[in-house]
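Our working data are protein records whose layout never changes between entries. Getting from the letters to the tokens is the skill we practise here. To make this concrete, we reproduce a full record directly below:
***
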Amino acid sequence: MNATAAVSTAKPRAFALELDVLRGLAALLMILNHAGFALLSPADATDSASAVAVFLGGFAPVVFFFATGFGIALASGPKGRPLDATGLLWKALLLVVADQLFFWRAGVVWGIDFFSFIALSTVVVTLVAQLRRPVPVCIGLILLLLGLRYGLGPALRSQLHGTSVLDWVLGATTIPHISYPLSPWMVYPLLGFVLGRMYARVDLRSPQPRNRWLLIGLALMLGTLGAAAWMATLNTGFFRWGMVSAAFFVLSLGVLLAAGLLSMLLVMAQRPLAGALALRGVASFAVIPIHYALLDACDATLSLPIGQGAFAVLVIGIAAISFVVASWFAARVSSAFFTTHRRALIVLLLSVLGAAVVGVVLGSPRETARMVLLVLTGQLVVAALLGLRLSWPGAART
């Protein structure tokens, strides 16, 4: 049997190391972006050699949201899988609570940031995956969302006030405490699902399908980056905060393709480095509160802002510690002890989460150290609960 036939008859995968590497690259981008704005001066963060890395770090949510849809596609398989409604709602609720801890710490009643949008993406894409023809539905929704943001949205912008559900759906105006409007951010997980379905049978050890993906990906990357460069000559702004410009969206596709190609190449040629970068499941969640806590510690102990040289050294250290601790934490959650005592631990962890929520809600933003500890505890508890839930029968590890 030749390589092509072997790939065509192979069972679709529910796991891909390259997806976990992609999550790791997204985490690195996130750390670069957050560390840049937390540790550098405003001038260095926006207009220096370091500013390039900080700017690229702004594409972290793009990669994370794409990976969410991609992972659901791999886990659901070509024919879908029975809907675990309880598990889906449980996961979404935990993610929303983790997100609100950030808002409650700042005295804000509610908002939609990274974790909440991951929850929404997970629910939407999982439900679409239950349909008979989910890929055409995803493509239709992608075109609809792009039409809403870059067609209808600008036409109605003068009538939008940043206070209604319509504003959030169109994504054409800034809305207080909402970082990710539906349009165009939901495009990324939907696109991830489409490509995940297409990629499910690809084996990187088989030259023909592997090379086809690499060549097509490279051509698309160069095309989108070229289009973004042309848009830059028209003085089109690359902004994403509150609402996503067309130039940023086009550039984001090029960055996303570059990250995907790099993930594939690392798995093919640099397996040890790929393994070090890979973040799966609980680790990909835990790295977020861990790196935030490290940045808070830097803010409390260092004289800020720091220079670009010190920033380069410090950000490497923060990334390394975040990855190591997150992976260690994930290993503990998947250990035999957690599996054996799962039910009792769920009750205990929910109690700790409840105490953390109460402490954050009743606390004061001025109590910085206490609030950092409470938020970190609450979000790591959420990560553990997600890991325990994912280990129950019938639930997917994505």
